[in-house]
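User: Let's play a game. I give you a shape written as tokens, and you guess the letters that built it. Ready? Here's round one.
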């Protein structure tokens, strides 16, 4: 999974074990399953990412899935987005300790300045952040057309995707699909909802917002 960079993954594991509970990054029950449930569970979604792409990890928290991805795939241009100052500090400490080439940004995906700064991503990842309706609203606008949202989910992934299909389409997302990563590697594969950005967001009338701006411009001629 991590190839010749496995020592970095082991060091990240040690850091989570040492600081995770005390700093509010993981729950006490997670210590015994850090490798399977957190590090490997995160790293396997690398199979969905093409070489040398731009990836934004939204709500990175303890650095999951962002840090394992950065270790497993040093070709990625990775940014970790996290709103909480103490977790931003943690992420910066980990990146320094592991000597990773990763950017950390403090903020929320729905904030205007964040969207301006981090637009046109090839992929946006999110792990246990929010239901698909909200997640799509926050994350799809950060993607280039053709870029993909990779939302790590649980057993209710298919139900959630069906329930929130209209909301996903409203922000420019495609039909979406549920895929399993790490089959044959993990005892329990990672479930990921994959949503491609296929168009601009639509307004209440169903028109594309970009088209609405062009119409107003045309009227002024």
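Assistant: Ready! My guess for every position:
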């Amino acid at each position: 999974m991590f190839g010749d960079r496995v020592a970095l993954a082991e060091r990240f594991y040690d850091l989570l074990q040492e600081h995770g509970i005390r700093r509010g990054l993981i729950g006490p029950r997670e210590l015994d399953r850090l490798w399977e449930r957190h590090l490997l569970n995160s790293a396997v979604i690398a199979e969905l990412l093409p070489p040398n792409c731009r990836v934004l990890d939204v709500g990175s928290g303890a650095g999951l899935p962002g840090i394992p991805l950065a270790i497993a795939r040093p070709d990625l241009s990775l940014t970790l987005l996290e709103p909480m100052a103490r977790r931003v500090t943690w992420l910066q400490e980990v990146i320094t300790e592991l000597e990773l080439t990763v950017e950390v940004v403090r903020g929320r995906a729905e904030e205007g300045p964040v969207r301006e700064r981090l637009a046109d991503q090839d992929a946006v990842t999110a792990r246990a952040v929010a239901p698909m309706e909200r997640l799509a609203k926050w994350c799809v606008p950060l993607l280039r057309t053709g870029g993909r949202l990779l939302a790590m989910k649980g057993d209710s992934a298919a139900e959630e995707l069906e329930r929130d299909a209209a909301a996903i389409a409203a922000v420019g997302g495609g039909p979406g699909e549920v895929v399993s990563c790490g089959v044959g590697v993990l005892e329990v594969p990672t479930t990921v909802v994959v949503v491609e950005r296929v168009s601009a967001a639509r307004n209440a009338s169903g028109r594309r917002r970009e088209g609405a701006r062009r119409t107003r411009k045309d009227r002024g001629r």
